[in-house]
Amino acid sequence: MAMQFYASPEQVMRDRSEYARKGISRGRSVVVFSYEGGVLFVAENPSNALHKVSEIYDRIAFAAVGKYNEFENLRVAGVRLADMRGYSYDRRDVTARGLANAYAQTLGAIFTEQSKPYEVEICVAQVGASAEEDELYRLTYDGSVGDEPGYVAMGGQSEAIATVLRKGHRTELGLADAIALAVSALASVGGENGQPRTLTAPQLEVAVLERTRPGRAFRRIVGARLDELVTSAGTTPAEDATEAPPATEPTPPAAGGES
Amino acid sequence: MAAGLERSGRLPQAYLTPGSSSFTELLAATAPEMLPGRRALPPGVADLAPHGTTIVAATFDGGVVMAGDRRATMGNIIASRDMQKVYPADAYSCVGIAGTAGIAIEMVRLYSVELEHYEKIEGAVLSLAGKANRLSSMIRGNLGAAMQGLAVVPLFAGFDLDAPVGSSAGRIFSYDVTGGCYEEKQFHSVGSGSLFAKSAMKKRYRDGSTAEDTVRLLAEALYDAADDDSATGGPDMTRGIYPVVMVVDADGVRRLPDEEVAAVVATVVEGRMVNPGG
Asked: Which domain holds residue A170?
């Protein structure tokens, strides 16, 4: 008689979770948060062509970390769902909540039914009339969905990045300050001996959902404008950020933390 | 499926399948009943469906302007006085429609979703010729209905972002009911009053004119069309209903505010008080 191997459901799920988590933590990170002018997305992504942040609909955008082919698949499906909804009903009937639910059901089903879970973590964000009305949903590989309060950090060492965001995040931040905060959060991990790294514009993918723009609110920040914003972020660290500026930078006028 | 979700609330398998970046193809695969031109028609509906009429477009140095009157007719009845027949298709193009109003509006809606869908999925904008060809295939799909009297004849105009320096970036494309797509030089018109509008533009069109001059040219052409074609609406001064005018240039597409159009139309009408023939 053939030997039957038994694995408890707990064990199976644990193994899958561990597998997915490992895959995600290998990748570079993405931060998403509300600022004064809308919702900001900053990803560490050296590629100009393979995006981690994309437009879904008028007020909705998508950010992801993990395996590119898997989250690209989800992104395309999201665009299809949103366009189909908007075409069947009205443009205003396409919501981030509906999309987050569809993603949650899909990821949940893939996690339990297929032998290999998706190694992705995604954020669906919708910009509202004010920062309080912004909606940020974070979805993980097993289909769990969280309604996040103002900011999301995903990818490798997301806990450490979230800590920096928690300290510095305020919804009244202007665009320059918001980018400075995002860059300092992303740069706070992965350096040698726990030192912050220096991130430059070509390493970043930056996009915003603009609160005041009518119709399609998604806009990428690229080229000279991005250079300018990231360079100024390097010289004036966000308020309350504990990281000291790199040694080569001039001393900030305000009393900054010393490492 | 109209809402786009499976009963379980999951994304349908068709959405997760990699492949086409065309929204029309997605509709054909998942909800074919929502495509215009895919429905069986009883004979004799053509007389009951409102028809939209005259659309005019002309290029200028740096772009193209398109305008349409506001009337829809149903036989001898005026079905609508303030119908919009010129729509932005995407950020750099617009489309005007003549023919069966219901199908035409549905087609324009589908067309603008088609362009936006491609842009989002591919992360790149279609070339102007590519956009014109997509519209062509949509009209071809409506051929069956067109043969029963429910024809849609659009006019497409846009700003060509890839145009070589020194050449005119404003381009106009016309269509026939079978989907044939023809690029037009300088100006064109479709719809029941197009014969008169085109004659008017032929006499008045000047190379190297400005956007303002071209808006005036189109207002004159629409006036002439309304003058001689009962299905084309003239400017309705008493109700304040004026043609819809879209200007497409390097900054993108924008609809001229009614006040601006009203001012242009007022000068046209004033001129006609003295010389009714223009």
From this structure: 19-235
